[in-house]
Design goal:
The protein has 203 residues and is an all-alpha fold. The chain is 66% helix and 0% strand. It folds into two domains: 42 residues, Arc Repressor Mutant, subunit A; 137 residues, Tetracycline Repressor, domain 2, CATH 1.10.357.10.
Length: 203
Amino acid sequence: MTSHRHNNESEAGPRDGYLDAARECILDVGWRRTTLTEVARRAGVSRMTIYRAWSDMPALLGDLMTREWGGLVAGQVDLAGAPTPERIADAVTATIEALRGNELFTRIVELDPELILPYLLARRGRSQELIIGVLSGAVAQGQQAGTIRAGAPVAIARGLVLAAHGFVLSAHTMLDTDGRDDAVDAAALDAELRTQIVRSLSR
């Protein structure tokens, strides 16, 4: 694992250095055993420095998740030009695949899955709003270009995010490992999702 420890300010600013330290700690010991004091120790700063940035670990985790998932989306979604159903479907499936392989996301799901539940059952998080914003903008742009069906862009985007939740968190429950002829693997499921997205967005 690549070390992200910082003794002072990182090139992107001190808060990013502190978030790097928190990320490293969560990967090492999980969320429950990560404290602001431990984050400060790993970042090489005083505890009060961290407390001035975040009042508690949930506040820090919110910023960390927003940075992590926002960066992931930015790295997978490139919809320059007129978006088409196929291009949006490719972006969504690529993002889902990247998220399932993200080490921080995987670690949280393995050790502390209850951290994810509020964003599935109670409220939208900043990361979800970011993704919805990107998708709704692409849908609106595609509608103007005549490549995407009519409909409220935000509602369409939220529908796509809801569908994606299952493919991110539950896809493993729908995979076969017994090697039979009709076995379904991750690639087959992702191809099915892509087909569903293309059909739902097509005029």
